[in-house]
Amino acid sequence: MTRSEILEAIHAVLRDHMQHSHLEAFAPEARLNEDLYLDSVLMLHLFLNLEMEFGLPAPDEVIAGEGFSTVADLVELLAADGECSDASAAVASQPSEGVHGEDYIDIKVHCFVSCVCAALKQSPGIDHRPFYFGVWDADFAISDRWGLLYHAPSISHDFFRDWYRRLYGVEVVEWYDPGRSKQDNLLVLLHLLERRRSTEYVMVMLDMYHLPERENKFNQNPFPHYLMLETTDDPAIWRVLDPDFRWEGQIEKDRVVNAILQPTVGGGYVFDRAQIREPRDADLKAYFEACFRPDRNALIEGTRLIIRAHAAGQDGTTLGELATALRELPVISIRKYAYEHGFAFFWRALKLPDSEFQIWCDEIDDLAQSFKTLHYAVLKLSQTQNRDLLRDVETSLDRLDALEHRIKRRLSAVFDLWCAQRSLTDFPRSERMRAMA
């Protein structure tokens, strides 16, 4: 197909097959997320329809990659039939000091953790990376209809709050009371903001779907999300700090309040970084052990259960509903990048070679990106209801499981080395050398 034909095919899929409601801005220069509101899941639907309706398959590296932002970028990648891998390699090869430098790239994969870690990063001498130990296998839920959920009443942040207090000496106080009305909770929030100290952080959950001026990379509806607020000199404007999306700026107070008052969300905390202290090594060891699950990969297990339940028609589910059931998989699978913080913390402490760290970063990236490829296969299975595709999906899950176990084994080995360095465990020299091999 020519580039103009590919452009028209993209438009036709969005208009006729996906009934997309944001096509007024469609043009080669239109940004896929910000202008056309295409999140990662809708992009997979776009790729699937281009393949099935126009015989235009997207290479795996396009499905998994993030090397395009506009319609024109996407046209070029599809026209080049997967040659985008060269462009992503060029981005990855940009000069860097590596894991031991101060320009080490930060990871943002969990809104609650990103908020509390923002305070740690403002505290001299405190390394925020260990707190991400709890993210790569953080809780999720499975609904009664076998749907994957990153936000549910059964999911609590108490685990993180308890460990934040034990590690850093800071009490994360829950100011939001679900027993009160929305308006009463809003009054509490207004009071906290008016009396906020310079070292204090006021967190609130809101529905990001109702802040269209803000980036919503997953375009979820609803999209529960924690961020932090401050007042400004203008009573009608609030300052918004969103560490998870690396954004801060000013938004009209009424718009923020509207997003807070949505019935789909509810939650809020307050804490003060003035209380932060450096964690003890023994507590860091205990936290890692409380978070680390060496023998199971919960997200892969849960995804497999959901797929098998729909394939078997359990509780009246069908393969056709599988796409909806796993819609939130990208929001949860991105947490796997937290492994990088685990490796980085131990690598820096042990002064291990940056070259091996980069190898493990590539493995972690492969894990996270392969979840996208799996998600694409799941969407194809759901749309076609071709049961012959189940075998390929199961094979993908097996590969993901093996890859994550490999990552965990190496992380466990460097954790043991770190414990031995700090005399936190009996770890014979022969075992240390074997772990390094």
From TrEMBL:
Q: Which Pfam families match?
A: DUF6005
Q: Which InterPro entries match?
A: ACP-like_sf, DUF6005, PP-bd_ACP
Q: What is the protein's given name?
A: DUF6005 family protein
- Superkingdom of origin organism: Bacteria
Q: Which organism is it from?
A: Flaviflagellibacter deserti
Annotated Carrier domain residues: 4-82
